[in-house]
Amino acid sequence: xxxxxxxxxxDVVRSFGSFRAVEGVSFEIPKGSFFSILGPSGCGKTTxxxxxxxxxEPDAGDILIGGRSMIGVxxxxxxxxxxxxxxALFPMMSVxxxxxxxxxxxxxxxxxxxxxxxxxxxxxGLPGSGDKRIDQLSGGQKQRIAIARCxxxxxxVLLLDEPLGALDxxxxxxxxxxxxxxxxxxxxxxxxxxxxxxxxLVMSDRVAVMNEGRFEQVDTPQGLYYRPRTAxxxxxxxxxxxxxxxxxxxxxxxxxxxxxDGLELVARTSERLVAGQAVDLFVRxxxxxxxxxxxxxxxxxxxxxxxxxxxxxxxxxxxxxxxxARTGGEITAALPQTGRFADLGPGQTVHLGWSTVGGxxxxxxx
Length: 366
Prior knowledge:
Blueprint: E1 5-16, E2 19-30, E3 34-38, H1 45-53, E4 60-65, E5 68-69, E6 80-83, H2 95-105, H3 110-123, H4 139-151, E7 157-161, H5 169-186, E8 189-194, H6 197-203, E9 206-211, E10 214-219, H7 221-226, H8 231-236, E11 241-251, E12 254-259, E13 264-269, E14 278-283, E15 289-291, E16 302-312, E17 319-324, E18 330-334, E19 349-354, E20 359-363
Parallel strand pairs: 3-8, 3-9, 6-7, 7-8, 13-20
Antiparallel strand pairs: 1-2, 1-4, 4-5, 9-10, 11-12, 11-14, 12-13, 14-20, 15-19, 16-17, 16-19, 17-18
């Protein structure tokens, strides 16, 4: 059975003077989803969020929550709540009073408020914390209280505008997991705005990648990473080596590319391309095999030789920067965690290789 749609946008447009911030955006978010809108600063994601919340009206199109159009409905009448990066908790109130604030404004009775606050504190993993002051909480606990203050009002949709941006790295990593588990437990639809791809990929059921006011692709995190549909998505989601060049030949979904600096590389393509066309070619660092001897690369279609410039050690996320011998171009490859390259250092010669399917080719806009 298909889940009902909690939030829908239909060809939404918003301009500021001559600048088009949101250009014909449409999407549907099923009930109980964790949906993220990912994009660089200035791409229009916060403008879109403010239209959903009711702080801005679309110039054209429609926004529906629970199947009802929100055009002309003020923010306080919409079944949504919004959490910003700055949590705006009331320091003069206790934890319980902060969570109860919205319920009191709605005129809910004291007994019901007490029970709902108690249940919400248990659900966010802070039972018995109602009497604490806000300044007694850690950063992560404050995040949970801000979320609880919204969820206790039982909104159809909870909007989150980069709420983890002010946290330190370790706490941010922890909160990504906590938010994902909390949303799955409570079942409220979350719409999360971020420029941090790690946040979007880790937490979301589906992610919309936004660029210059439009959605480039809406997909699962795995779909965006392994099957990007545009050059922007391929370059923005995950790390990639990128070459510009022209298409020498194409056969089915296999493209032979001559890069601007003279390399000939083979890659796959997911769109129709013709010989002579300008293209961008992407290869992820983890798709590149690293070897001390060229023979170790076997039958890989793409092979290059270079000199190690630098080793960027970061545990399982370690990378090696290699200066390619023929062109002098820099290539980033993932450093295997087998221990074979534990002694790798600057100045050493290495061989790089990847398969045809390890590269992805897109036509470039002129």
